[in-house]
Amino acid sequence: MTKRLYSIPAIGLIFCLLLASRLLSAQTFFTAEVKGKGKPMILIHGLYCNGDVWKETVERYQKQYECHILTLAGFGGNAPSLNDHFLSSVKDDVIAYTKTKKLKKPILMGHSMGAFISFWAASSAPGIFEKVVAVDGLPFMPAIMTPGATVESSTPMATQIRNGMSNQTPEQTMANQKAYLPSMITSPERVDQVVQIAVKADSKPQGQVMYEMFTTDLRSNVSAIDCPVLLLGAWIAYKPYGVTRESALKGYQDQVAAVKNAKVELSDTAKHFIFYDDPQWFFDKVDSFIK
């Protein structure tokens, strides 16, 4: 019978490799770039985007905050890691990342899709986050467009959107984004900037994200959020379609009615990318809220 001997250094190396493997596996659905020092702040971008959209936001806050800037799998040139519950997986990864990195009560800030993920993470893990800043993102997007919408009524459209988006070529993505983004961003230079980010995105995750956002209703889930929430909204781009400030405000307030401590602020000048269209208003509202 042969006895196999293991040295203590070898055992230590094996342990470290296993630990590293577990830590890496905890971040399957995004990469993170860290800038600055201070209280932790996690920033999550929107559809077709990546962490670069937060450049000016990070520049403002990195002297006082440790900014963790996420870019999701399949976005911004990152390799996709797609499944049938992609956003739920991202949400779980955000929570796991917060725990693994031992981030103490981070501020969670998300734009559009990122706000949806932020609502989901904060409602799934009470006690972990200090505050949530949702930048024109909602717990259930279809209801802001069609009052009375449900998951069931939205599923056919969600399926159609996913099928249409999932197989777009980079050339088709560029053409579609050039046509669509002016309704979401006022500055032509900013539109071009986001278009260049969008063409790096994998099309299948974009379609899957839209499907999940149309078929996941978090309006009751958010009642579990135990920290203050600031929801920043934009409405002026929809004024030609009959939307008024009053109707928009009610729509946003209804979305977070179940949150114990939620504040809604509407910009009267910005489109969907509020931090590009009205940065001073954006920073004033966020500064007041997080300080």
Automatic annotation (TrEMBL):
List the InterPro entries hit by this protein, alphabetically. Answer: AB_hydrolase_1, AB_hydrolase_fold, AB_hydrolase_sf
Protein name, please? Alpha/beta hydrolase
Q: Which residues form the signal peptide?
A: none
* Keywords, in A-Z order: Hydrolase
Q: Please name the GO terms that the record assigns under molecular function.
A: hydrolase activity
- Keyword Lyase assigned to the entry: answer is no
Q: Which Gene3D superfamilies match?
A: alpha/beta hydrolase
Per the record's keyword annotation, is Signal included, yes or no?
Answer: no
Where does the AB hydrolase-1 domain start and stop, copy by copy?
39-144
Q: Which Pfam families match?
A: Abhydrolase_1
